[in-house]
Write a structure and sequence with these properties.
Elements lengths: L7 E6 L8 E6 L12 E8 L2 H16 L6 E7 L10 H25 L2 E10 L1 H12 L6 E5 L8 H11 L5 E8 L4 H18 L4 E8 L6 H17 L11
Parallel strand pairs: 3-4, 3-5, 5-6, 6-7, 7-8
Antiparallel strand pairs: 1-2, 2-4
Helix pairs in contact: 1-6, 3-4, 4-5
Length: 249
């Protein structure tokens, strides 16, 4: 994926964990000023192709141009084959390496190069939604928010790991949004959505704000942008007022 305008810069972050460079494309908001006192939220998102990057950028540009002017820096991580799969022992080892690389290389690099504030948002869709849930279970302290849309079906114990994490961290402060559509093969994904919702209902401490959303009429592809837009909106609203423990504003 090559940069398409002056606001974009593409970097290769070296990984001692993955054994191969991991490319990150950074897109800055209009008017970004590295010398100003302003700080910017950071959205980490996987781009599995050019089209998915453009969809993500379109949503981010809407927020940056809106009345609230949230000023989001978009960091799109290229998909490295096999790097985000969760399941058997080998797959989970690769996911661990990917998460370690985000922690040890990607986030420190972005914080050093750009005026990033405390808002680090990790968003994923489909298989990347499952990886975002995995990251939530393993390293919740890395992010301020997780936005999971239409997560891929999962036969592992991932939701149990999320529950264990929440029960072990009563002082945790975090925002979690997850969504599912109602059309097409979204029915196959509904069980993992419901399991995560039940975990959040039963185990989320007071500092964990969350929302579960069923997007009526949306198919799997629709949830990519619709869920990201709704997740970001809810997160920024929740930053100003807490959600109640039923997952409603």
């Amino acid at each position: 994926m090559e940069p398409s305008d002056a606001r974009q810069t593409r970097f290769a972050t070296e990984s001692r964990h993955l054994g191969t460079p991991w490319h990150v494309t950074v897109t800055l908001p209009e008017g970004y000023n590295a010398a100003s006192e302003g700080r910017y939220a950071l959205l980490l998102h996987f781009a599995f192709d050019q089209e998915s990057y453009e969809w993500t950028r379109e949503v981010v540009d809407e927020f940056n141009a809106g009345e609230a002017q949230h000023d989001i820096i978009l960091a799109s991580l290229d998909y490295v084959d096999g790097s985000v799969e969760v399941g058997d022992e080998q797959a989970s080892e690769n996911a661990n390496k990917s998460l370690a690389h985000i922690e040890d290389a990607v986030l420190p690099f972005l914080r050093e190069e750009y005026r990033v504030d405390g808002n680090v948002i990790f968003a994923g869709w489909s298989r990347f939604g499952r990886f975002a849930t995995y990251a939530l279970a393993r390293k919740p302290e890395l992010f301020d928010a997780a936005i999971v849309r239409s997560s891929a079906p999962d036969d592992s114990d991932l939701h149990y790991r999320v529950r264990e994490m929440l029960e072990s961290k009563p002082q945790l402060e975090l925002f979690v949004y997850h969504s599912i559509g109602t059309e097409g093969n979204e029915a196959d994904r509904r069980p993992i959505f419901e399991r995560l919702k039940q975990v959040l209902q039963g185990a989320a401490p007071n500092g964990v704000r969350w929302k579960s959303e069923v997007i009526e009429g949306a198919n799997h592809a629709d949830t990519f942008s619709l869920g990201l837009r709704s997740g970001l909106s809810t997160y920024f609203e929740a930053s100003e007022q807490l959600l109640d423990q039923d997952g409603e504003p």
